[in-house]
Design brief:
The complex is a heterodimer of chains A (230) and B (393). Chain A is an alpha+beta fold and 230 residues long. Chain A has eight helices and eight strands, in the order ααααααβββββααβββ. In chain A, the strands form two sheets. Chain A has a four-stranded antiparallel sheet with strand order 2-1-4-5. Chain A has a four-stranded antiparallel sheet with strand order 3-8-7-6, with no helix packed on it. Chain B contains 21 helices and four strands. Classes of the chains: A alpha+beta (230), B mainly alpha (393).
């Protein structure tokens, strides 16, 4: 046996056994047993240096893993705004992440992929539905902008926030959408079709305590629905 | 016909919930264990967005998260662990103990069934409500549309964070080197991760000796206990943000970054085969004379050295001659008698092949455990101190 490296084949052999854990324990015992023989003094000295190197590399690996995991925890905490502490802690965490390009890229990716609704833009997005059909999206900037949906025919309508909250629903009838029925005997101001006229709506509903106003304007063959966010 | 009736009934059931904001739904879930509110939230509220795309429901959003490379990294590239993390995170937001509105199950379900095992979603929705009350109402004032949008954003962040935590939890569960121990202390139970070889009595004794004044009611107590475990046992310590910047402590778990495929490679190819493969794969980083051998000859050389050592016939000059190397070159690569050097030079005096072997074994948990158990593992404090001082590279 090569006495300077006697531990190498002992360890290598342990990995060929079915029960590796037990074989490795036995291997360690064998290495220690032979170390008592003076003929193996040099070999045992090399074994301890070898184990120092193994443990240092193990610790380096763990330290790297710990740093990576701490960075990941920080990235998630920053990205989800759940970092404990105040602005100083947040900035310190940012500096830490920015210090390493791979972490900085990971934070950017995290922020991009999990970008939340209120960061997509300032507009509010609604779905206008008739029965089970989605007629279209109504996008409103806040505050004060009005948006119209044309060609509204009699039926059951719902206005739903894009996150699923039902804001308004109503069955709009012919007498609310057709001019001749809503205002019999009166002339239709055609300018109303452009939205510039301030005609009286046939229907005016408020929702969310007045934050949302919905108005139905009758037309010649169909009506229009106006959504105003206050 | 039956389907139509079911649809109609569902519409009637939903009616009362469709107007409820996310916060109101969460309140129903937390205060009344309202399963219909929970269903409304999961089935009909696409309040989430991924990558700025279309709106998604909670489970769909979690599914998108689970497909990211980030998530893959969080579980160390283990698909099974990732699947479990997805299920675990979803359970945090779906698992509801039966409430008073579950009339159909009252009298049928036993008390045990009424307290379903696993996470209780009310806890997570309560956290959502707390966060909302602390921040969102202040930020968005009384504007209810803005509040709803803010609520969706906060819920998404909470779900994301808990998915990450589920990834950590499931990674630890699948780590055979550690196990969870529930420590009974004043004020309740603290869950702590300990080396798997510690039995319950050892764990209790160790914790009682090493952790002063434990109190489960104290905020951050489990993190404190876990940190002590990490620092004092032969486990990797927990890393803190303070080490970077003197900032606030953030507890992190441990999870090896060593390639997990390594133990498998050793078990398939043997130690020599795994190292030969590794060397051949990184031939560019070798000394020029060894690199000149090429991958195939290098593989053969490594295998030959291991084989000759095993059969007790290793002759350095014979092997060097056979592979066209000088004796000095092979001695630097796989020498048997290492020169004695001290301090930082000590490691560099170990020939390349044996340093690579040390690197490979450092990534093998069973080897590390066997070395610790045999008492041949250096004290980790001195190893870490060496690293902090700059140590040998």
């Amino acid at each position: 046996m090569n006495r300077e490296l006697y531990f190498i084949p002992i360890i290598a052999r342990a990995f060929e056994e079915r029960d590796t854990s037990r074989a490795l324990s036995d291997a360690m015992a064998r290495i220690l047993e032979l170390s008592r023989d003076r003929a193996y003094a040099q070999g045992y000295s090399q074994f301890t240096r070898f184990m120092d190197d193994v443990s240092r590399r193990w610790a380096e690996g763990w330290k790297e893993a710990m740093e990576a995991e701490a960075a990941r925890a920080m990235i998630v905490a920053l990205g989800t705004e759940t970092l404990e502490g105040g602005e100083a802690e947040r900035q310190a965490a940012r500096r830490m992440i920015d210090a390493r390009p791979s972490w900085r890229d990971e934070l950017r990716r995290f922020e991009t992929e999990t970008r939340v609704t209120d960061e997509v833009g300032t507009a509010l997005r609604f779905l206008l539905k008739r029965g089970d059909d989605v007629l279209g999206h109504v996008i409103c900037e806040v505050p004060g902008r009005r948006r119209f949906a044309a060609e509204i025919v009699p039926g059951h309508y719902e206005l739903v926030l894009d996150s699923g909250l039902l804001l308004w629903e109503r069955h709009l009838r012919a007498r609310e959408l057709l001019w001749s029925l809503a205002f019999p005997g009166q002339e239709l101001d055609l300018a109303a079709d452009t939205g510039e006229s301030q005609l009286q709506p046939a229907v005016e509903d408020t929702a969310l305590g007045g934050e949302l106003i919905l108005r139905a304007f009758p037309g010649l063959e169909s009506g229009r629905l106006e959504v105003e966010v206050r | 016909m039956r389907l139509a009736e079911t649809d109609r009934q569902e519409q009637l059931d939903r009616g009362a919930y469709r107007h409820l904001s996310l916060v109101a739904l969460a309140q129903c879930i937390v205060r009344e264990s309202d399963s219909l509110a929970l269903r409304e939230l999961h089935d009909h509220r696409p309040a989430f967005r991924f990558g700025g795309g279309n709106t998604l429901r909670l489970a769909e959003f979690l599914g998108k998260l689970a497909e990211t490379r980030m998530a893959w990294d969080w579980v160390g590239g283990q698909q099974l662990t990732l699947d479990r993390a997805y299920d675990h995170a979803l359970a945090k937001f779906t698992n509801l103990p039966l409430g008073p509105k579950d009339a159909s199950l009252v009298g049928v379900a036993s008390p045990r069934q009424r307290n379903r095992s696993g996470p209780d979603c009310r806890r997570y929705f309560r956290a959502f409500l707390t966060y909302m009350s602390q921040t969102a109402f202040r930020d968005s004032g009384s504007h209810r549309l803005q509040q709803e949008r803010k609520a969706a954003a906060i819920l998404q962040k909470l779900v994301t964070r808990h998915f990450y935590l589920s990834c950590l939890e499931c990674s630890r569960s699948s780590n055979q080197l550690v196990r969870r121990y529930f420590w009974q202390v004043a004020g309740g139970t603290i869950c702590v991760w300990l080396p798997s070889h510690m039995n319950g009595r050892d764990a209790r004794t160790w914790l009682t000796t090493n952790v002063s004044d434990p109190d489960a009611r104290r905020v951050g107590e489990s993190e404190r206990v876990q940190r002590i475990v990490g620092e004092r046992l032969l486990l990797p310590r927990l890393f803190t943000q303070g080490e970077f910047d003197g900032g606030t402590h953030i507890a992190a778990g441990w999870q090896s970054s060593q390639p997990r495929a390594l133990p498998e490679a050793i078990s398939i190819k043997g130690l020599a085969g795994a190292i030969a493969e590794e060397k051949a794969g990184n031939v560019d980083g070798l000394r020029p004379s060894i690199r000149a051998l090429g991958k195939s000859a290098l593989r053969a050389l490594v295998q030959r050295v291991f084989d000759d050592l095993a059969s007790e016939c290793f002759e350095l000059s014979a092997v060097a001659s056979e592979f066209g190397l000088s004796k000095a070159t092979l001695s630097r690569f796989a020498g048997t008698k290492w020169s004695a050097r001290k301090g930082r030079e000590e490691a560099s005096s170990i020939p390349d092949l044996w340093r690579n072997t040390a690197q490979t074994l450092a990534g093998h948990p069973e080897f590390v455990e066997a070395a610790k158990a045999a008492g041949v593992w250096p004290r980790i404090e001195s190893v870490l101190a060496g690293l902090q001082e700059g140590g040998p590279s």
